[in-house]
Write a structure and sequence with these properties.
Helix content is 5%, strand content 45%. It is rod-shaped, with a radius of gyration of 51 Å.
Length: 430
C-alpha cells in the first residue's frame, strides 16, 4: 500500500514537469513597449561666446522628454572624444541649455563637451568637442579721463584676440546698432547734453565667436563753464610796497585750475584747498595772497582771472575794479664830508624809482634828522647826486638826511649822516 502511494506521487511529478517544459515562454504585460533614448540623444550645435576671462556655452537638444539636465566637461587637452579619453579639468551640471564658466585663464585654449543627463540617472553620449580661448577686452574713453569738454571722444579698445567687428553704443542692449569693422582706436559721438555718459562695447572675433559680456566705460561731458566774479582786497586805502593783497576767483566749480594776471604778474595760481587764504577747500572759490615787492607799481591796471575746469573748458573774466599799486621808492645812501669851515659836500646814490619826482635834503643839529628838520634843498633831476651847502658855522656838527619822493606822494629817507665843519684857521702873524 505504501509502495503504490509513492508510485502515484512520482508519476504525478513527471506529468507536471512535462507540462511545464512543453509550454512556450509568454509574459503578459499591460505596459507599452519602451525604447532606450539615452543611446541616441546627444546635445548638438554647441556654441561658445567669449567673455572677460570667461566662456558662455550653449547648445540644442532634439529629444528632451526624458532629459533632466546636462553635464559639461572642460578640458585643457585636445585628447577628448565621445568616450572621454582625457580627464576633465572641471565638470559642471545645469538644468538649463547654457552655462557660463568664470575665472578662466585669458587666451588659454580650452575644449568643451556636453552630455545629457536622463531621469533614469544615466548619462548620454558627449557632444563633439569644441575649443575656445577666453579673452579679456576693455575700452577706455579719452585715456581714462574723468571729464571731457566735447561730445566727440577718442576711444581705445584693448583685446588680445583678433576682433573683426564691433558695436559701440550708449545703450547696453545695442538696440538697433549694427556691427562695424573693428578699430583699435576710434571716435564716438555721445548724445547731446552734459552729464555722465556711458559707452558699451560688443565684439566679434575671427573664429566667428562673439563676446558674451560687454565692456564699458564712462566719462562726464562738461561743455559749460562760468566765473561768477574776480575780486581783490588789501584792507588798506592805498596798496603799496610790502602790503598783502588777497585775490579771489569765484567759479563754484571745484577741482579746476584758477589764476590771476595783472601788470607784469601773469597766471599767478589761486587755490581751493584750504591754504593760501582759502577759507574752505573744494568749494569752487580760489584764492591766493600777493605781497607787493619793492619797486612794483601799477596804475589803474585791469585784473583778469582765468579758470580752467576739469573738462578743459577755459574762461577769462576781468575784475570789476582796477588795481593801483604804489611802489615806495628805495632809499638812497648818503655820504657827507666837510670841505671848509663853512661848507659841507653831500653825495648820494641815484634813485632807482621809476616814479621819481625829487630829492629833498634836510639838516638837523641832532641825530634825529627827518623831514621835519631844516629844509636845505631840493633836486628834481634824478641823475643829480651831489650838493654843497655853504654858510655853516665852523667846527660844528651837522646831521643830514635825504628823502626820495615819487609822483604818488610816497617818500623814503636815507640813513642819517653826521659831519663836522672844519675849524677856522688861526690868523697868520705879520
Amino acid at each position: 500500500m505504501c509502495y503504490i502511494s509513492k508510485l502515484k506521487c512520482f508519476l504525478a511529478l513527471l506529468v507536471m514537469v512535462a507540462v511545464v517544459t512543453g509550454c512556450s515562454r509568454h509574459l503578459e504585460s499591460s505596459d507599452p513597449v519602451r525604447t532606450l533614448p539615452e543611446s541616441t540623444v546627444v546635445p548638438s550645435n554647441v556654441r561658445v561666446a567669449l567673455g572677460n576671462n570667461s566662456l558662455k556655452i550653449s547648445w540644442d537638444i532634439s529629444e528632451a522628454a526624458n532629459v533632466s539636465g546636462f553635464r559639461l566637461f572642460l578640458f585643457d587637452s585636445s585628447l577628448v572624444g565621445e568616450t572621454g579619453t582625457a580627464i576633465p579639468l572641471e565638470t559642471f551640471e545645469t538644468s538649463a541649455r547654457e552655462i557660463r564658466i568664470p575665472d578662466l585663464i585669458a587666451n588659454k585654449l580650452y575644449f568643451i563637451q556636453v552630455a545629457a543627463l536622463f531621469e533614469s540617472g544615466l548619462e548620454g553620449l558627449r557632444s563633439s568637442a569644441i575649443s575656445a580661448r577666453p579673452t579679456y577686452f576693455s575700452l577706455s574713453i579719452e585715456n581714462g579721463a574723468e571729464y571731457v569738454n566735447d561730445s566727440i571722444v577718442d576711444v581705445h579698445i584693448s583685446t588680445p584676440l583678433s576682433a573683426t567687428h564691433m558695436r559701440l553704443s550708449e545703450d547696453s542692449l545695442f538696440d538697433g546698432v549694427q556691427y562695424e569693422s573693428f578699430e583699435e582706436d576710434t571716435r564716438f559721438e555721445f548724445s547731446p547734453g552734459d552729464g555722465v555718459k556711458h559707452l558699451y562695447l560688443d565684439l566679434q572675433f575671427t573664429d566667428g565667436s562673439v563676446s558674451d559680456q560687454i565692456a564699458s566705460d564712462s566719462i562726464s561731458v562738461d561743455t559749460d563753464i562760468s566765473i561768477d566774479q574776480v575780486v581783490f582786497s588789501s584792507g588798506v586805502a592805498s596798496i603799496q610796497t610790502g602790503d598783502t593783497v588777497l585775490f579771489s576767483l569765484f567759479s563754484m566749480d571745484p577741482g579746476g585750475f584758477a589764476s590771476v594776471s595783472f601788470g607784469s604778474i601773469t597766471n599767478m595760481e589761486l587755490f581751493d584747498d584750504g591754504t593760501h587764504g582759502d577759507a574752505a577747500p573744494l568749494n569752487g572759490i580760489y584764492t591766493a595772497f600777493f605781497v607787493v615787492p619793492p619797486g612794483f607799481s601799477l596804475n589803474n591796471e585791469v585784473v583778469r582771472g582765468t579758470f580752467t575746469d576739469q573738462a578743459g573748458n577755459r574762461l577769462t573774466k576781468a575784475a570789476d575794479e582796477r588795481l593801483t599799486v604804489y611802489a615806495v621808492p628805495d632809499p638812497v645812501t648818503l655820504a657827507a664830508v666837510a670841505i671848509s669851515d663853512s661848507s659841507v659836500y653831500l653825495h648820494w646814490t641815484e634813485s632807482t624809482s621809476s616814479d621819481f619826482i625829487a630829492y629833498r635834503i634836510y639838516r638837523s643839529a641832532t641825530a634825529n634828522a627827518d623831514e621835519n628838520s631844516t629844509f636845505v634843498a631840493a633836486e628834481l633831476d634824478r641823475q643829480t647826486v651831489s650838493y654843497t651847502e655853504e654858510g655853516l658855522a665852523a667846527a660844528t656838527e651837522y646831521y643830514y638826511v635825504i628823502y626820495v619822493y615819487d609822483q604818488f606822494g610816497f617818500k623814503v629817507g636815507s640813513q642819517v649822516v653826521m659831519v663836522q665843519t672844519l675849524a677856522t684857521p688861526s690868523p697868520q702873524a705879520p
